[in-house]
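Hey, quick one: can you model this chain's 3D structure?
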Amino acid sequence: MRRIRLFRSVAAVGAAWALASCSATPLPRSAAVASPSATGSSSVSAAWLTARVEQPGVIEAAPTDAPVFCSPCHPSVGTYIDALVQFRGGYLAVGHDQPPSHAAAWASADGLMWKRATSLPSPDGSTISAAVTKNDGSVLAVGESAGRAAVWRSDAGVSWTLTALPAPEADAQEWLTAVAASGAGFVAGGYTESATAQRTAVLWHSPDGVSWVRGSAALPAGQSEVRGITSVGGTNILAVGIAGDERRGTAAVWRSTDAGSTWQAVASPALAAGRMLAVVAAGSAAVAVGEREDQTGAAAWYSADGLNWSSAGGPALDNFGLQMVMDSITRDGSGFVAAGWQSDAGNGSAVVWRSADGRTWVHLPQDASFLGAGLACVLGSTPLMVAGTMGWPDTHAAQVWLARPG
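Sure thing. Here's the predicted structure for all 406 residues.
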């Protein structure tokens, strides 16, 4: 599924190691951790607090204190967190279970204990990819349900409504992968996929999160998809994604000045450096992250105006020729934070980066709990929070980490 599907498929670089050992990565069910200070710094040290995320029974029953030798090693269901938002004094995580895919959500008052939502509509073939908190404190989440773009809404995180948007052309499926608030409502983006697996970017806009209309966008020749959206002030919106194949294409950027009704494609030589998977605004400027075109490292871009882009480099984005992906980005009091994953000689591992200006990045020290994990989202709260899945290759379980103040 979307970002996590990419992680799971490429993390198989470590499959040779997995076949040799075939032992399940222990999965902590509870964390003996101190509660972080509510006023503590959001700066990140090498240590992270591992939260307790409620799982389906088949995952909860997995052994946690010793390797297990099995064939096959995989549980019958995996859980994945794809987005985090602050919500009514607490936090909300959304994502999916699979197989088959079902939308999922978790709520937490403190970031340490996460309880699954039981009233979330989650029909077969549904998943939530992104979410945003509305001005009134309610939540709007987007994804897909039974092959159609879908929107979930909740006022208090307890009861939810699910709306499937009008279906695309015959024999095509549609996913929404990104959502943002604008000065005139909301915008969302994603892609349709034809019966021959050809993807075409789509963009939607809504004044209230209830009624949605397709936007008009100039699309590149061939395949395309939207992976991130951000508001750069008022009705000015930026969408980023991929032009071409999701593994070998290059970055795509669209700009709207009318809250998502119409979109213009942005051209810049820097877009050839890789694929954009997420974007965040800083005033009229924007920073995007993703992976290099040749899959040999992470990629980041900076633009002062959303039109002219430059790409970043440096050792923090290198991974010795192996794949490294920045999958999500946010702002906090110290600048920008990105989260993602990297291939390595074993299971692959989660990675967190920091940048003061969006141009120069530092690869933060790895935490032992990041082994076998992949991060799909980051929340610039206090404390800083990241989430995704952990336990590759034998267990796929949704997980949240909180940065220790210090």
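One thing worth noting: Residues 2-10 form the longest helix (9 residues).
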